[in-house]
């Protein structure tokens, strides 16, 4: 997932979208990656893919750097195009592949860009059109998606089509968009159940999968960033923490999220950052997306708060 800086548009017209897709295809092919779903929105992009020989970082750096340079040249602008670094989430394929394919491909429907699945069938800026056989996209593995429904033929898409229809009207799905334990446990109902039992659980907001999957991924990564939180700390989202702290300090959420630099705003941002890390296990990058500053500013704010606590 990647967004335009300050949520501004990253595509001005269809030529921009076409060039981005051309480069996406080249980059994914060179990186030996497999794409299962994608969508281009006005100010953000979602891509679901399996990383290949060179990993995610190399592929995304090449793709986004090329496009930012192209866009700035064409539109005679300077500066950053994208907001911070792209956000990547490791997904448990067995349990979440199809849910993510559907969720990503229904973005234009949820946004009101297209009204129906029939319109989505021919919508050019989404991978759904390829899966149903109305477009050719050699760098996208539509057959693998269809194989999950018992067929690799685009002539037999009915099960996939029915699955997509079931998703219309679902709206935002917390377990696919939330962070921390909410994501790792697969939904708010599971988190509430854990709260009632007073359980602790391992989680990481960069992983979409259950406990065993989280354990396996973090063990492979060295395990040094796996977090545990108590159930009593799981009752709030980052948005609720932001509203609570802003109300407490008498500042507006808008001023906070648009980079306000007043001392009261900076102090509030630091308190939110600490709570986001301690209570929700969020990374500095995840917190930065909500509080109007970059990742390094969040890191400095947390360090400043921790030094202050140590001095006390």
Short description:
The chain is mainly α and 312 residues long.
Radius of gyration computed on alpha carbons: 21 Å
Question: What is the percent of helical residues?
Answer: 40-55%
Which spans of ≥5 residues are poorly predicted at pLDDT below 50? Answer: 178-188, 223-234
Give the domain tally: 3
Estimate what percentage of residues fall within beta strands. 5-15%
**Major beta sheet, specifics?**
3 strands, antiparallel
**And the CATH topology of the largest domain?**
Alpha-Beta Plaits
The N- and C-terminal alpha carbons lie at a distance of 40 Å
CATH superfamily of the largest domain: Transposase IS200-like
DSSP summary, beta strand count: 7
**What structural category arises from helix and sheet content?**
mainly alpha
Q: Quote the average pLDDT.
A: 80
List SSEs in N-to-C order: EHEEHEHHHHHHHHHEEHEHHHHH
Give the strand order of the largest sheet, numbering strands 1, 2, ... along the chain.
1-3-2
Number of helices: 17
CATH architecture call of the largest domain: 2-Layer Sandwich
- Using the coordinates above, name the CATH class of the largest domain: Alpha Beta
Global geometry: globular
């Amino acid at each position: 997932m990647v967004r335009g800086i300050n949520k501004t548009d990253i595509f001005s017209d269809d030529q921009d979208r076409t060039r981005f897709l051309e480069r996406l295809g080249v980059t994914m092919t060179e990186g030996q990656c497999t794409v299962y779903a994608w969508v281009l929105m006005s100010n953000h992009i979602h891509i679901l893919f399996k990383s290949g020989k060179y990993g995610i970082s190399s592929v995304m750096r090449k793709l986004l750097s090329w496009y930012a340079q192209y866009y700035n040249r064409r539109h005679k602008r300077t500066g950053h195009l994208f907001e911070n670094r792209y956000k990547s989430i490791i997904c448990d394929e067995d349990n979440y592949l199809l849910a993510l394919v559907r969720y990503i491909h229904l973005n234009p429907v949820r946004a009101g860009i297209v009204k129906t699945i029939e319109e989505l069938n021919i919508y050019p800026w989404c991978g759904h059109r390829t899966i149903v056989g109305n477009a050719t996209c050699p760098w996208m593995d539509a057959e693998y998606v269809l194989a999950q429904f018992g067929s690799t033929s685009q002539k037999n898409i009915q099960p996939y089509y029915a699955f997509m229809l079931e998703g219309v009207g679902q709206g935002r799905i917390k377990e696919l968009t939330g962070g921390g334990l909410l994501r790792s446990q697969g939904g708010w109902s599971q988190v509430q159940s854990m709260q009632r039992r007073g359980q602790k659980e391992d989680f990481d907001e960069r992983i979409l999968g259950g406990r065993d999957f989280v354990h396996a991924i973090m063990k492979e990564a060295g395990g040094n960033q796996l977090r545990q939180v108590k159930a009593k700390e799981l009752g709030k989202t980052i948005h609720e923490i932001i509203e609570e702290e802003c109300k407490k300090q008498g500042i507006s959420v808008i001023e906070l999220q648009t980079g306000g630099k007043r001392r009261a705003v900076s102090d509030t941002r630091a308190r939110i950052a600490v709570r986001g890390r301690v209570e929700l296990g969020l990374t500095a990058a995840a917190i930065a997306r909500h509080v109007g500053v970059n990742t390094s500013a969040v890191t400095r704010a947390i360090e400043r708060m921790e030094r202050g606590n140590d001095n006390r």
